[in-house]
Amino acid sequence: MGPEVEAFAAALKKASRAADNTVVNYRRDLLAFRSFLLERAAILGRRVDEIDLAQVTADHIRSYLAELMKKGQARATVQRRLSAIKAFFRYRESSFAAPSPARSIRSPKNMRGLPSILQQDEVRRLIEVAPGDSSVAAMRDRAIFETLYSSGLRVSELVGLNWRDIDEELGMVMVRSGKGNKDRLVPLGEPALDALLKWRRAMPIAWEPAGPVIVNLRGGRLTTRSVEMILQRRIAAAGINAGITPHGLRHSFATHMLNNGADLRSIQEMLGHASLATTQRYTHVSVNHLKEVYKRAHPRA
After folding, report:
1. Do 176 and 160 touch, CB atoms closer than 8 A?
2. Which CATH architecture has domain 2-96?
3. 200 to each of 123, 162, 193, 209, how far by Cα in Å?
4. Residue 215 three-state SS
5. Which of 144, 173, 238, 271 gives the lowest tally of CB atoms within 10 Å of its CB?
6. For the chain, what are the domain ranges?
């Protein structure tokens, strides 16, 4: 099985032009499945150095998935490992006409929790945590969080922005997404645009239309990890007791838009979701909000 996994990884990278991370993850997941099969053979008293793929059955795969669940692996991890196994056996099926034992196995349903969000007052506190701070870093950080919340950008999309992507006259930003390679135009609120322009005037390097919008204080493009660290410091400074990530501001954007009357299709377009089903999960948060309003306002709630 080992050599065939290596051949599959090479074929995946070449034929499918898959992302490097996908190839690495699939290879690692398949080798983990191989280790499970070797361990299972040892338990049954058989000493084997390699797995005969012709002997692998759907029950072996189900046992492996059950073992992962028993060990507390996240459903998303189990789904990914099954995807790797299915892709591997599809490759063998097309290359060697070998029936796939994974064909009939379904992925475990993903139990998606509600996204973590900030309340509108918490967002204001986060953005305005240091109103008297006119340092270059403070202006940049305000521009970061105003933009994330104003437009619902992914943090990777934010740090990938160049100045030419921002239309000051229209108040729009062109998001050049690496996810699905689908560019989209998103409105940019006036507070966010003002914060960006103030930051541009204070930047440690001369800005250029093709240059990065968000940079560190040495002039290099800021990383997503740096934005996460800045957010954690800012949350602590604002006294907000919530575990939130930059993606949580995207969730907050969508939830607050929905609560204030925006329709799902428009939110889907702004978020860049390929499927409306992905956007619909925000309706659950909105329903909770409506229930809270009802309980506070109705005399017989």
Report:
1. yes
2. Orthogonal Bundle (1.10)
3. 23, 12, 10, 11
4. strand
5. 238
6. 2-96, 120-297
DSSP string, 220-255: SBPPHHHHHHHHHHHHHHHT------HHHHHHHHHH
Among candidate residues 55, 67, 65, the one with its CA nearest the CA of residue 101: 55
From residue 278, how far is each of 25, 176, 249, 254 by CA, in Å? 24, 20, 16, 12
Rg (CA), the chain: 24
Report pTM: 0.60
Contact 192, 151 (CB under 8 A): yes
Q: Indicate if 120-297 has the same CATH topology as 2-96.
A: no
Note the pLDDT tens digit of each residue in 115-145.
678 999 999 999 998 767 789 999 999 999 9
User: Amino acid identity of 152?
Assistant: G
List residues with catalytic annotation.
154, 179, 247, 250, 273, 282
The helix (run of H) or strand (run of E) holding residue 20 is: helix 20-43
* CATH fold for domain 120-297: hpI Integrase; Chain A (1.10.443)
